[in-house]
Amino acid sequence: MIGSISAWGKSAIGLVGIGLTVFVAAMPLMGPAEAQKRVAPTSREAIRQSFAPIVRTAAPAVVNVYVRKRVRTFRSPFANDPFFRRFFGDRSGRPSERYQNSLGSGVIVSPEGIIVTNTHVVKGSGKTEIRVALPDQREFDATIVTQDDKTDIAILKIKSNGETFPSLRLGDSDGLEVGDLVLAIGNPFGVGQTVTSGIVSALARTEVGRSDQQVFIQTDAAINPGNSGGALVDVEGDVIGINTMIFSKTGGSHGIGFAIPSNLVRVYLDGALTGKTIKRPWLGAKLESVTRDVADALGLDRISGAYVVRLSEGGPASEAGFELGDVITRVGNFKVRDDRSVLYRLTTIGVGRNAAIEVLRRGKRKTLTLPLRTAPGPSASDVEELLGDHPLDGLTVANITGGLSEEMELEDERGVVVLKVLPRSVAARYRFREGDVIFEVGRSKISGLDDLRKALTRRLRRWNIGVNRKGRILHLRISG
Asked: Are 242 and 117 in contact (CB under 8 A)?
């Protein structure tokens, strides 16, 4: 099965495999000595050379991931009646359960049976059973060690009795150049393990991701449904990416596929192996990508970088000496093209370290030292569970702190954000969601919990509630 989202006219970005990271930066240019290692074929014998040795090394560690999910459905004796279905659809009659099967790929990255795949391959509501099949015909059950929706990275562990497995090494995705040869290995369409070849056709792709924490290597090696979670390997046989999705009008490969860089995968893998929860660095600032208008206004000679539009009081950026309007051009040794580039580079550096950030301030370049630490969670006084005779009964909401705003990718810091919706509560019935920002109740503007408490004490015959849902403004009118 392949999902898609509309983009660029009639084109669609399809998630490879089942159903459907932040960050991105331009990859560094190689020095003259390293560039000399890459040479074009110089003879007919060189052209006849084969990728077979690489495949023999890499293919045994690429597995098929079979996912069986128990899903709840509704079935009615009138379900086949066209007239009945016209008015009631499929959600009619008594609830029942059925199993839904799907397929993806994965890469074994340690002899103990640790597998890297995509979150969209294994994620699902209800009970999920995961089975992996190795190329040598062995099959094992597997469990999810950790998964991250924003980057689409999931780590699995094979259930075995101390057996060892063939594994691959994660390479250095920062060493890639456009034009480098790569192989994509996976199980497209469920036909069995398949190897395709191509080149790295672009680096640092950010425009195609759903989250501001997604980054991609682009390749023309054929990637199709079922390849999700498979390996993108270089000519050394190292994994330099995890195949994730395609850009397609039909759901099949059109020569534009995307893979998550191995250096980002390594951050999550190291966390899984050490038992640590992955924490992203907290910048303490809101960034926006430099546009043509911004570049003209600031007198920049190129449309590149990210500029600071908001600073959180007491955040790392304020502590490091950032100012509004600063244009970030480089993180460490890497140039950055946009706001996602900055976040990506900070994540790969890791919490607990310092990052050297080059900024352009009023025409002059300046290097700032940014301490990388996690965002503080909301205090007890910033969180409240709402109970009472009102439409918000069953919500857990919080004041929007700077750290919470970044973690939940909120566009604005005005209002209160929904952290949890109690199942079968009044609020759940009105379809409130986690991440909703409530900014208005009745005629009262909501800037925090104090405003919300006052607004909810009123007895209203009709509730008008303003909600910001990922940038979409909703005005809910609910009878009291």
From this structure: yes
CA 345-351-354 angle, 5° bins: 70
- pLDDT value, residue 20: 35
| Residue 228 bears catalytic tag | yes
pLDDT digits (tens, 9 = 90+) for 71-125: 555 555 555 555 445 444 555 455 555 555 668 899 999 999 999 999 988 886 5
- Find how far residue 310's CA is from the centre of its chain: 24
Cα maximum dimension of the chain: 85
Q: What is the pTM of this model?
A: 0.72
Active-site position among 120, 341, 390, 451: 120
Which fold is adopted by the domain 60-158? Thrombin, subunit H (2.40.10)
Q: What residues pair up with 131 in beta bridges, in sequence order?
A: 66, 141
Beta strands 181-186; 194-205: pairing state = antiparallel
The pair of structure tokens assigned to 451 is 């405003």
Choose among 103, 42, 92, 415: nearest CA to 229.
103
Query: 48 vs 161, which has greater pLDDT?
Result: 161
- Distance between CA atoms of residues 199 and 220, nearest Å: 6
Single out the catalytic residue among 148, 152, 180, 234: 152
101 or 194: whose pLDDT is higher? Answer: 194
Per annotation, catalytic residue among 201, 228, 253, 405: 228
Q: What angle do CA 168, 334, 286 make, to 5 degrees?
A: 105
CB 65 within 8 A of CB 103: yes
Q: Which fold has domain 380-479?
A: Pdz3 Domain (2.30.42)
Residue with tokens 């060189």: 46
Ordered by start, the domain boundaries in the chain are 3-29+53-58+168-274, 60-158, 285-371, 380-479
Q: State the Cα–Cα distance between residues 130 and 124, nearest whole angstrom.
A: 11
Q: What is the model's pLDDT at position 273? A: 78
Over residues 405-449, the pLDDT tens digits come to 877 777 766 899 999 999 999 999 999 999 999 999 988 899 999
Q: CB under 8 Å, gap of 24 or more: what pairs does 436-439 form?
A: 436/467, 436/468, 436/469, 437/400, 437/410, 437/412, 437/467, 437/468, 437/469, 438/392, 438/397, 438/465, 438/466, 438/467, 439/412, 439/414, 439/415, 439/466, 439/467, 439/468
Of all residues in the chain, what percent carry a pLDDT higher than 90? 38
DSSP state, 237?
S
pLDDT of amino acid 46: 67
The reply to whether 475 belongs to the active site is: no
Looking at domain 3-29+53-58+168-274, its CATH superfamily turns out to be Trypsin-like serine proteases (2.40.10.10)
Strand partners, 195: 185
The reply to whether 390 belongs to the active site is no
